[in-house]
Fold:
Amino acid sequence: MAQHKVNYTQDGGLPVALTSIDKIVNWGRSNSLWALTYGLACCGIEMMASGASRFDFDRFGTIFRASPRQADVMIVAGTLTKKHAEFIKRLYDQMTEPRWVISMGSCANTGGMFNTYATVQGCDRIIPVDLYLPGCAPRPETLQYGVMLLQKKIRANHASKAQKAKRLM
Amino acid sequence: MRAYTPKDNVQAKAYYTDRFYVSPQVPRHDVSSDEVFAADLETISSKFTVNESYIEVGQMVVYINASDIYGVLELVRDELSYTQLTEMSAIDWLAKDNTFEIFYQMLSMTKRKRIRIKYSIQNGQAVDSVNKLFRSADWSEREMFDMFGIEANNHPFMKRILMPYDWQGHPLLKTYPLQGDEFAAWYEVDKIYGKEARDIIGPEIRDTANIDRYDSERFARLGFEQPKGTKITGDEEPTVQTYQEDGGVFLITKFDKDASKIVDDPQR
Structure:
């Protein structure tokens, strides 16, 4: 406490907020969605633009992290090749629960225009996806709206209940 | 050139039938028409067998025997000043006569000329590596092995370069399907989850335009989203886009669309 004689407790001046555990946990989870930097192709440019000053993802509490151990949401931004498929699975397994996945753009959703032997036809063949963003590439506004929808999805959960771990199979 | 077809009714019917444009034969000139190339060819043919030679689009093409390649490239590098191997790879002529054609594209910075050394090998035959002469052949020969399955003898690291090491098949062969064989189709599923997961994950959906608007399990019509599993009739009301729940969010200011300000001045 400060040395000057301020009575913080008078007139209910102490900063106290009453809420339920559910709400405060979900508030914490949904408003600090740290994203794994996962720019695989040109969608990564839009993802970087979302994080930069003009669109400013930090306002939503979304801060890009370079390590899966520190990330809550994996934004699969770009073409997922078959050679890279095992690594996306490994990085997804390294993220801590609860974790979410946003599939950004046509390539990550369905393979997109790369109807070839070397492209995974949709990253949901490898990892469970929570949100699909259409577009080639989606604008940063789309990604921000997607993150807001993901926040809504997180807030709809009961934090007091143990969450069922998401598995593809 | 392709024959002219009238295009006054192009909206009604497709007039274009060729799947790919078939280019006309590029004219070939005799090597004696260019004195630099003629002197180069004479130097090469004085030491090695030259099967065929001509000038095509300003570049000399020389066909040699497969066993001479190291000597020929050493000769053109050291004596004819073609100091750079800009590109090398193979061409698949297996359907025609069961051969591959290997080409080496050479550049001389002092002469400002390009020549192309070519030879044919039978299917299954290996080539001699020129990695000791040109470092740029290192990755090119690995790519040639990756894409065509042609091995280079005396290469220090003869492994795949683009595809995974455990890949089967050589994708640039004309017999290789564009969308992959069965190994390619199940590669990631087999590798990560095992073959028994094939039934659960299912085959690849290759038709990306495949959308069933009456399917609420996997699709949502934008602006008319319905809960998962709802029976879609086709006359749904448009859904209102909301950013937050109706009751508001703990500690977060409620977003009011009417109170928000739209910045339409790009020079703000």
Observations:
- The helical segments of chain B are 35-47, 69-78, 94-97, 137-148, 182-185, 187-192, 198-201.
- The longest strand of chain B covers residues 84-93.
- Chain B touches chain A through 31 residues (CB under 8 Å).
- The first helix of chain B runs from residue 35 to 47.
